[in-house]
Amino acid sequence: AAPPQSRVEAMNVLGDVYEFQKEEEKALQIFQEAALRPPSLIKWSNNAALENKGPGYSHAKIGIIFLRRSDHSRAEAHFRKAALEFDHPLGHYHLARLDKSPSKKKETSLLKSAGTGFIEAAADLGQLHIARANSMSAGKKEEKATQLKLAKEWLYLAASANDGRGMLGLAQAFKVDGKPESGLKWLEMAEKHKDAQVAKEAAKMRAIF
């Protein structure tokens, strides 16, 4: 347990350390304690390690642990609290990921997360617009073009930040848009990605591109 007077941000950093060390039960306990603490009035804009790590972050991290344990109902409850009560980008992101359809509600949650610079949310927004484009009939050329334009904008943002899913998604968006040569350039970059899974997926996509 953390000292009684510990600030919520410091407790969350401690929880992150336990989680990194694979001590999940200790991490969960710290995050649960932190979630009950009041938000700090101190601004941490000059300290990236503490910025935006109030109770909303605690709830999001609790949700992630429960999701890892396949306890979806409790995970959703904490993501919802993080997003709706504390407006935390991590809560919005994971709440959106529970929605498997490219719905307007999911888009709103992802926009709130991506708007704070959360790159994973930008990659998911791109995939959402690709899914919408693929579901449109041949007669809706303008609407499809708009969806693909939005997809490429969000995926480019993610890919430019070296996000592997952003690179793969951008290649896919170019292919759907009839520009496979542009997509191949991103696949080549993805094949050199430090994430072995991304590199493997890029090689698989390139083989059938």
Describe, in plain words, how this protein is organized in 3D.
It contains eleven helices and no strands. It starts with 7 loop residues before the first helix and ends with a helix. The longest helix is centred in the last third of the chain and has 20 residues. Helix 7 packs parallel to helix 9. With 209 residues, the chain is mainly α.
Gyration radius, rounded: 19 Å
Give the helices and strands as they follow along the chain: HHHHHHHHHHH
Mean pLDDT: 91
The helical percent reads over 70%
Number of helical segments with 4 or more residues = 11
The fraction of residues assigned to DSSP E strands is under 5%
Count the strands?
A: 0
**What is the end-to-end distance?**
53 Å
Low-pLDDT residue intervals, each spanning 5 or more residues: 44-50
Q: In one word, what is the shape?
A: elongated
- Main sheet: strands, sense, barrel: none
Class derived from helix and strand content: mainly alpha
Short description:
The protein has eleven helices and no strands. It is mostly helical and 209 residues long. Mean pLDDT is 91; it is low at 44-50.
Keyphrases for this structure?
single chain, 209 residues, mainly alpha, elongated
Spell out the blueprint of helices and strands.
Blueprint: H1 8-20, H2 24-35, H3 55-68, H4 72-85, H5 89-98, H6 104-114, H7 119-134, H8 141-160, H9 164-176, H10 180-191, H11 196-207
